[in-house]
Amino acid sequence: MADAAGPGAAPAPRFPVPTTPAPPVGVVGLGQLGGSLAAALAAAGRPVQGWDVDPAARDAAAARGVQISRELSGVVVLAVPLPVMGTALDGLTVAPDATVTDLGSVKGPVLETVGAGVGSRFVGGHPMCGTERSGHAAVDPGLFSGARWALCLEPDTELPRWLRVAEVALAVGAEVVPVTAAEHDDAVAAISHVPHLLAAALAAAADRAGPLALALAAGSFRDGTRVIGSDPGFVRAMVEGNAGATTAALARVQEELARPWAELVADGHAVATRPQGRRAVRVPLDRAALLSLGRAGGAVTRRLAAFVEGYVPDPA
Amino acid sequence: MADAAGPGAAPAPRFPVPTTPAPPVGVVGLGQLGGSLAAALAAAGRPVQGWDVDPAARDAAAARGVQISRELSGVVVLAVPLPVMGTALDGLTVAPDATVTDLGSVKGPVLETVGAGVGSRFVGGHPMCGTERSGHAAVDPGLFSGARWALCLEPDTELPRWLRVAEVALAVGAEVVPVTAAEHDDAVAAISHVPHLLAAALAAAADRAGPLALALAAGSFRDGTRVIGSDPGFVRAMVEGNAGATTAALARVQEELARPWAELVADGHAVATRPQGRRAVRVPLDRAALLSLGRAGGAVTRRLAAFVEGYVPDPA
What we know:
The structure is a homodimer.
Chain A: E1 25-28, H1 32-43, E2 48-51, H2 55-63, E3 67-68, E4 71-72, E5 75-78, E6 93-94, E7 99-102, H3 108-118, E8 122-123, E9 125-127, E10 148-152, H4 159-171, E11 175-179, H5 181-209, H6 211-216, H7 219-225, H8 232-241, H9 243-257, H10 261-272, E12 277-284, H11 287-295, E13 299-303, E14 307-314
Parallel strand pairs in A: 1-2, 1-5, 2-3, 4-6, 5-7, 7-8, 10-11
Antiparallel strand pairs in A: 9-10, 12-14, 13-14
């Protein structure tokens, strides 16, 4: 092949090559996730507008080079908590042709609420990062570096808009995982929402065991409960907003806990320590091909004119 | 009061004051825990003997100032895996008046096996530290700094021997928690053995959810499964060696998981983020008083002639 990434070609540029001029980005909500995204884009020299109902969050973002504005265009990113996602744009002016995306941890309900208003201009997203801290004081422009960023490709998603949002994610160092909203919600139930419930149950049960137990708590307990230090309103919105998938995933955990411990320990150890190789792939700009990449556990790392580059897991 | 630690007294010495000359310490098993203990004592200038069946572990310990020997006296520390605890002293010569302790993660079974041979010279112990790594390559002389170290006070435990072992733990920076073996085993089921099973179940269930789920796994999944990266033989010996208490603690977690999620999340968050103040206390050298300290969630931080200093939690 003779394209830019082929053998013998000139060295690949370090950053993704947008095929159209990079659109402006407008971030609504400048807490940990939104503030970090806006700061990372501003640090990369990209024009970023932002808004937050909290003046302190606006001031913090402005100090990082974000232009504070109620008028947004290009790629508009809703970075607000799930319960207020549906009203995030109230009082703001959004360009009629803007692509709208979000960073919410559940995708089905956001697709129903935001998607109903925005239509096919909406592309649901969920970067798999963030810590148990929250708010603008927890902003970190490096937050997305190396993180997976799930991006929804529904049957009616306009692929050029999906690619525009993907380029924003790639620009801050994330890897883009193409998914449907339903696939996303099933997956995060298993790897995020159930872990939050297990952490809560572990902490509450240890408390019932008494002060001696809490006094002896060490690494395994701290690791196992850390995530429930997150804002409980946020956690509750997440698990209740994905109740069906979370219930099913919790049932799978219960089935595992009912197995003989020797088998359970051996299998859990094997999963947790499985070598994680990866194999480079190229995927055409096609919904079915992109979704296959995501289902295989792969991700997009770079966008080129006629395809994307990425990888799939390689057990080696 | 006019003792050394009273108001107006001379500044307290930085290290614990042994009331008798510090006995030599002999460590059997020079992997992560035993090797770290021996290295920490050697670094503090204390004479330490050690033995390991693995020549590489012996060489690594010798390089850290540990005298390699099959003849042990003073405080003899069994730092071998649970399944071989009963035969750890085979082939070694132990002084007849030596105090024997161990670092095993379950105390009831060790009391039955080792205690049966050693009698009232045995003091069971369990430092609440260590990582998912193991072996002499994971040795860290700072491993015990600030860690809680459970130390068993059974009805027939000789208090002077208990204090001698406590001084070894204090000398490497640990805080000593007086417990009975049964209290210990109930407590660690809740805060260590159940977290290992939950981590295994979480990993195994996520694997069943498919490659997409594992690809999206981020912080909460990594935290929630880290501990099952530990050696599975070690984990299995631990949970199977404490099956009764672990089953009961797991049942408490299941009860929590059956509660409404909003309540569960709120309660788990409250436990995980509860402020942890502490209040200084003095405790006489008396079994009942020391065990009361442990049951209150407290620990011993310093030994003086007629009492120990320590603290209890203070909700403030």
